[in-house]
Write a structure and sequence with these properties.
Strand order of the largest sheet: 1-2
Number of domains: 1
Number of helices: 5
Structural class: mainly alpha
Shape: flat
Radius of gyration: 19 Å
Largest sheet: 2 strands, antiparallel
Helix content: 55-70%
Order of helices and strands: EEHHHHH
């Protein structure tokens, strides 16, 4: 895995210490990977205009139905996707604010 400009695996082979973010990273099981993959697939269904919109319920419902999830599992799946989407939208909004501030600060610089 690479982040911060270098591959952790290569760094470890060279005797570097592993970064904290790598040591603290949780191990993902197959279900975790499936839900994350589903989230990114469903993200392509969101409305994009003046800003990012939520993933539509219809897309989540159709995805779950297509995968033949039981009613109870569909409710859990929808909850997981909604929670992930809420966090993603908050992160995305924060990143946009940072970019706007950096652009405004750059305009102020001589």
């Amino acid at each position: 895995m690479a982040r911060d400009g270098w591959s952790v695996e290569v760094g470890l082979r060279k005797g570097r210490d592993a970064p904290d973010w790598w040591l603290d990273e949780p191990q993902l099981g197959p279900l975790d990977v499936w839900v994350i993959s589903a989230f990114w697939t469903l993200s392509s269904c969101r409305q994009v205009g003046m800003g990012y919109g939520q993933i539509p319920w219809t897309a989540i419902h159709a995805f779950a139905k297509d995968r033949k999830l039981s009613f109870d599992n569909r409710l859990i799946f929808e909850h997981l996707i909604r929670e992930m989407d809420s966090e993603y939208l908050a992160w995305h909004s924060n990143e946009q604010d940072k970019r706007r501030k950096a652009a405004a600060d750059q305009k102020k610089s001589p």
